[in-house]
Amino acid sequence: MLEIKEVYKTFNAGTVNEKRALNGLNLTLDDGDFVTVIGGNGAGKSTMLNIVSGAYTVDSGSITIDGQDVTGLPEHKRARFIGRVFQDPMMGTAATMQIEENLALAARRGQKRTLRPGITKAEREEYREMLKILDLGLEDRLTSKVGLLSGGQRQALTLLMATLKKPKLLLLDEHTAALDPKTAAKVLETTEKIVKRDKLTTLMITHNMRDAIAHGNRLIMLYDGRVVLDIAGEDKKHLTVEDLLEQFTKVSGSDEADDKLLLS
Questions:
Q1: According to a count of CB atoms within 10 Å of the terminal CB, is the N or C end of the chain lower?
Q2: Which residues, including other chains, have CB under 8 Å from residue 61's CB and lie 6 or more apart?
Q3: Rounded to 5°, angle at Cα 5 from 199 and 191
Q4: What pTM did the predictor assign?
Q5: Cα–Cα distance between 107 and 90 in angstroms, integer?
Q6: pLDDT digits over 53-93, tens only?
């Protein structure tokens, strides 16, 4: 479903601020893979998601999604088959619009616009049923403005909108990092439900190693812009945080693991 092949990406090339973010990155995801991604600051995690989504162009290498080479496709054209949830709960929704209007926008992604009435009664019932999976009571607040929701509620709604059209690829960029622990756990639980139900191929970046171990069928670690650890199946089930810290120490050549990695 996703193949990243020998991808290089350098920012501010030829200046004192030159930074090679991706260094010959190779990664293949099979259909239905749920891959958690960890790594220290500057390891290339967010850059990887940005080159997959088309937000950044690559210096060299190729990106293939579901057999189609998308390396040269701009972000808006890739958006037809990619769903994405960002770290900031304020992104991904329109604050001044109602919950049902936000869902209608997501449902109509890629379709031609018409002058027909915005939301039908049947669609409203459909949205009400969809919102029940979040278990946040939003199904009874369809006409509430999204700007009135809490950060956790908005992030859960964004997740629902990103997966509404069952994308070929779901990208989660530390989508629970800005939430309190209880809300983050709720959003992660919902993420797991939706990914399993729709068998979505998913890449989830997290700084929380416990979450990386607990979720998904595969875990990768990035360091210096490339994959240095790739664990799946039974091996992943038996992983511990101590194992990952030891691996991080080995690849980084330092006893001082990244501060954010140690937060977990």
A1: C
A2: 4, 5, 6, 7, 8, 24, 25, 71
A3: 25
A4: 0.90
A5: 20
A6: 999 999 999 999 999 999 999 998 998 889 999 998 888 89
